[in-house]
Amino acid sequence: MNMRKMLTASTAVLVCAAGLTACGDGGGSAQEDGGDVSMTFWHNASTGPGKTFWEETVADFEAANPGVTIEIQSIQNEDLDGKLQTALNSGDAPDVFLQRGGGKMAAMVRAGQLLDLSDLVTDETKGLISEGSFKANQIEGKTYAMPIAVLPGGIWYSQDLFTAAGITEPPATLDDLDAAVTALKGTGVAPIALGAKDAWPAAHWYYFFALRACSPDTLESAAESMTFDDPCWVDAAENLEAFVATEPFNEGFLTTAAQQGAGSSAGLLANHQAAMELMGAWNPGVIGSLTPDEKPLPDLGWFPFPEVPGGEGEPGSILGGVDGYSCSAKAPEQECADFLNFIARTDVQEGYYKAFNAPPVNTEAQAVIEEPYLKSVLESYNSAPFVSQWLDTIYGQSVGNALNVGVVDLLAGKRDAAGVVEAVNDAAAKS
């Protein structure tokens, strides 16, 4: 895959700046003394097939590894980061947990909270997962998480609602998207669902406008310097502001949740009350859990975020990266690594795809993907000239949160375009 990746641009700088010399020293194995081993495992699949998948996967691993038990805790996605940070800071972190990557992972590495997996990933696993997917979970060449899913963003849509509105092709440009919004309004459905109550889904719109307005060099430079002085950052906010003025979103989008219940943004698409939603590639599984029969939406389609004229971004660039799982620095080293290698196996990864309806990282497992929308996701990801991780992930907790809140304030009319960038620069100066 010939692409420039920004998945780790900020993390290496953060670690270098900290002068880190011994991050993530392993905790060793309790079985060295002949005893049983118990681990804790946190994930964000709180309902449905995803929750069942992890329960069955853990049971299979325990059966194959006598003496090892894993206590599972499923945590709602919006609650996970906060609870995890509290647990890490208190020294009571779970042994295995979902890893977002970027600046958030770099902060954990700086604090010595993660196990260095570099020598614990088996050759078999390395042969099943692309080098690019591992790089998304590396800092200075060291691996701190096992990649599990490829999750770039784009626009999910109802093909039936598009047809009813006379839309024959997915929008390729911003003008096309504006025209689709107008056509869909004429049919009485919400053109685009947005769960701005959770902040980050609203911020995704700004991320993509920034990807179109700013050059890859500018995006990489900002990730390193944590300064946002290039005019493209304000341009992106102004483009978003102009788009919001066309009223493309569902009524009450500022108080709508993203993924919880039929009234969420995903639920509006699942029940044909809205035609589109901008979201990562985990969305089909979420949507499927919210349809009336709790099955995948049969008319679901996907297209990349439209091109925006006048910007310096490379056409075809895409946002979103690779989710993974980390081991705590205090986890039993060998057993934790064994579990991470286990979840990378082809049969387990095929089960992940079927449960979550999302693209797995295992290249053999990717071969069984049937849905055209997931094939389109992988095609766009693999051909993208530039791939950026989610901006709030790159910039870390404080700056990322300031960005997300700033975008919501823009959508609510409480802040102008320049004010969004000012809020991010202020947060960066304090971090």
Topology:
Blueprint: E1 4-5, H1 9-18, E2 37-43, H2 48-64, E3 68-74, H3 77-90, E4 96-99, H4 102-110, H5 123-126, H6 131-135, E5 138-139, E6 142-143, E7 146-150, E8 153-158, H7 159-164, H8 174-185, E9 190-192, H9 200-213, H10 216-225, H11 231-244, H12 265-270, E10 274-280, H13 283-289, E11 300-303, E12 318-319, E13 322-327, H14 333-343, H15 346-356, H16 363-366, H17 372-383, E14 386-388, H18 391-411, H19 417-430
Parallel strand pairs: 1-14, 2-3, 2-4, 9-10, 12-14
Antiparallel strand pairs: 4-13, 5-6, 7-13, 8-10, 8-11
Helix pairs in contact: 1-4, 1-10, 2-15, 4-18, 9-11, 9-18, 11-19, 18-19
Question: What is the helical fraction, as a range of percent?
Answer: 40-55%
**Number of beta-strand segments:** 14
What assembly state would you assign to the polypeptide chains in this entry?
A: single chain
Number of helices: 19
Poorly predicted ranges (pLDDT <50, ≥5 residues)? 1-33
Radius of gyration (Å):
21 Å
